[in-house]
């Protein structure tokens, strides 16, 4: 099939493009190369997979390019985004333009294509807001749900909190509604914390990678909140398997929304990750604390049973193994990562 990976030079995008190319698909990676590390990811992709076609475009403005690329695609993986709550609070207009307007532009390109492609959209668990109605219990260095043993399901009431939550939530609902109104074959993935190779550890691009990088470099981290907040974490290879499953079952599941994360058996608190890094590095990870961020949940754990039932998918890489694999990739690419890090 012909894959269009939008955000194809980002962390998830470059992994997705490489994965599709390995499977023998024709792949186009589209990116505006604005995010830290995308130039390095694109250079790697071109070197390792010279058959992958690359296009420079911005989903906010380059509608003609989006239209032309969507017309040639069988599958669109829409992974381009502004990803940080903190950045959205500082610059909500840009956050909206990328996440909400940009997704609308992608949907319009797909809708107008002669043979509309499948579209999978990377949404976020932030669409559920702070979940203040859910009982939280503290146990040692972590919080847990008081009465959701399998995690939060897709039946949760939406409660967008922060500009990031609003922009991603609006896009999430647009993707769902384009399946209902226009018959597009779409799936929305409300993703938890994704981590893995080609994540350069920039602070706003994922806390797992940021902590692992700071541990590798022997530098301190700031923890927002008390560090006992818990997330289900998902190694990127497991996310790619979920993309494959959605494509394979799209005729049956079009219009569906799935929580895609590590689930209750693949969770970490921030303090637990600090200890995991200490064990890998053989020295403590220096850390300090700051105020909670807007909309930051004390616990978010995805109930992934719907994806299991409908897609036949389940996470396979546990956090201990996944974090070690990420650390190994960072160590092997330390020179490149440090150059990117210094350029910020």
Q: Could you give the topology of this structure?
A:
Blueprint: E1 2-6, H1 11-22, E2 26-31, H2 38-48, E3 53-56, H3 63-70, E4 75-78, H4 85-90, H5 92-112, E5 118-124, E6 136-139, E7 142-145, H6 163-182, E8 186-191, E9 193-195, H7 207-217, E10 221-224, E11 230-235, H8 236-248, H9 250-253, E12 256-260, E13 267-269, H10 270-281, E14 287-290, E15 299-300, H11 305-311, H12 319-332, H13 334-343
Parallel strand pairs: 1-2, 1-4, 2-3, 4-5, 5-8, 8-12, 9-11, 10-14, 11-15
Antiparallel strand pairs: 6-7, 11-13
Helix pairs in contact: 1-2, 3-5, 5-6, 7-10, 7-12
Q: Order of strands side by side in the largest beta sheet?
A: 3-2-1-4-5-8-12
- Estimate the global geometry from the Cα principal axes: globular
Reading the helices and strands in chain order gives: EHEHEHEHHEEEHEEHEEHHEEHEEHHH
What kind of sheet is the major sheet? 7 strands, parallel
Find the CATH topology. Answer: Rossmann fold
First and last CA, distance:
37 Å
Number of domains: 1
Number of strands: 15
| The CATH homology group name | NAD(P)-binding Rossmann-like Domain
What structural class do helix, strand and pairing data support?
A: alpha/beta
Oligomer: single chain
CATH architectural name:
3-Layer(aba) Sandwich
Cα Rg? 19 Å
Give the averaged pLDDT, no decimals: 95
Strand percentage: 15-25%
Overall helicity: 40-55%
Q: Number of helix segments?
A: 13
Q: What is the CATH first-level class name?
A: Alpha Beta
Uncertain runs are none
């Amino acid at each position: 099939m012909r894959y269009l990976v939008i955000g194809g030079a980002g962390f998830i995008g470059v992994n997705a493009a490489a994965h599709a190319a390995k499977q023998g698909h024709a792949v186009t990676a589209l990116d505006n190369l604005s995010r830290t590390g995308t130039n390095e990811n694109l250079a790697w992709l071109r070197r390792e997979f010279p058959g992958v076609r690359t296009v420079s475009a911005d989903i906010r403005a380059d509608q003609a390019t989006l239209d032309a690329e969507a017309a040639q695609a069988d599958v669109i993986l829409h992974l381009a985004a502004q990803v940080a709550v903190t950045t959205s609070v500082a610059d909500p207009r840009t956050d909206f333009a990328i996440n909400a307007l940009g997704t609308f532009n992608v949907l319009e390109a797909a809708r107008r294509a002669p043979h509309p492609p499948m579209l999978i959209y990377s949404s976020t668990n932030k669409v559920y807001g702070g979940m203040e109605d859910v009982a939280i219990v503290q146990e040692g260095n972590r919080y847990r749900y008081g009465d959701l043993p399998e995690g939060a399901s897709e039946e949760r009431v939406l409660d967008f909190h922060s500009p990031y939550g609003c922009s991603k939530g609006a896009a999430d609902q647009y993707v769902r509604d384009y399946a209902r109104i226009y018959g597009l074959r779409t799936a929305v993935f409300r993703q938890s914390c994704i981590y893995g190779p080609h994540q350069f550890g920039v602070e706003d691009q994922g806390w797992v990678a940021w902590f692992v990088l700071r541990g590798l470099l022997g530098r301190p981290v700031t923890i927002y909140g008390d560090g006992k907040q818990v997330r289900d974490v998902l190694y990127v290879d497991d996310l790619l398997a979920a993309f494959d499953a959605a494509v394979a079952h799209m005729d049956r599941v079009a219009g569906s929304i799935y929580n895609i994360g590590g689930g209750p058996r693949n969770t970490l608190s921030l303090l637990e990750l600090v200890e995991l890094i200490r064990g890998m590095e053989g020295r403590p990870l220096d850390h300090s604390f700051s105020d909670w961020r807007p909309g930051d949940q004390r616990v978010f754990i995805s109930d992934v049973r719907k994806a299991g039932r409908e897609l036949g998918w389940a996470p396979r890489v546990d956090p201990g193994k996944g974090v070690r694999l990420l650390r190994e990739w960072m160590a092997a690419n330390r020179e490149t990562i440090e150059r990117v890090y210094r350029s910020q």
